[in-house]
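Case study 2.
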Amino acid sequence: MTAPNARTEIPLNLHEYEAAARAILPPMVRDYIAGGAGDEATVRANRAAFDQWRLLPRMLRGLQDVTTATTVLGTPVSLPVLIAPSGLHRLAHEDGELATARGARDAGTIYTMSTAATVPMEAVAREAGRWWFQLYVFSDRGVTRELVERATAAGASALAVTVDVPVLGRREADERNRFATPPGIVMANLLRPEHQQMPMGPGGSGLATYVNSLWDPALTWDDLDWLASLSPLPVVPKGILHPGDAVRSFEHGASAVIVSNHGGRQLDSAVASLDALPAVVDAVAGRGEVLLDGGIRRGTDILKALGLGARAVLIGRPAYWGLAVGGDAGVRHLLDLLRGELARDLMLCGLASPEEATRELMAPVGPL
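Prediction:
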């Protein structure tokens, strides 16, 4: 891999990508990406949850090869890993979301563009393969409608609606750093100048001031119906943890749900995403696909999520790390690492494809 900021030693896994990115990013940017809400208990829980499960492999299966390919909402992907929506990618690399989208495209998977992207969706769409648009709902519903219409016209194939940000979680690192975007970096998907800038407020975090002044805190299930009416795109609520909310999502037109606690950046002490997954899958009972976001760092993490019922997973922070280290090549390489790990893990478990991962694969920590 040859790219700006590339280190002499190419990272061998996602943990090494994180270490390399932390070494080169400015402290304010590093803390913005890595940080969570409150005491960051949920950030830690998202990783710890994977350690509560072990894999129970089967032998003598006669496999000569495996595939990591699958589909998500009918779209073929080369591995069951999508890029989660996250904003402000130009903080990590000058090409920003353009590079992230290229990396996902070249790896054969889906890129999810954030409302808070720093490159306009129309420009990113020209570089992306299949992509979804992630929507934050503004109090000004005209802004929201306009975003959906533009995303549809630009070729998005699904609308991921973030539902867990009535207010921004308290991210103390951002307050301490007085987080704000540097000159020249704006919320490029918003057309009005007052929506593009991140004003500094009395609390110290420009992002908190922005979110709490412009986004609608009082969304209801009726709003999900309204969003589904705006376009033919499948609607995918992101931020579902309670099984009852998962069921209601499908009752209000969702095509899939993303089990997520926003990477531990919203409600601290919220349940880990993986811990919430089995009950959600059971409650949904095949009504639609269930995806998981939060804590994925290894092929075995992906396999555990699949075994507990996820159709696919999404990665957020790792995309920033790959972007910071190597631009689009870094994002592509990071996804290739996960594909290689997953292929090896499938073979070692006696599974020919992601679809063969079921709860029979899973063993909780402790005696069988």
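Residues 33 and 317 are 6 Å apart (CA to CA).
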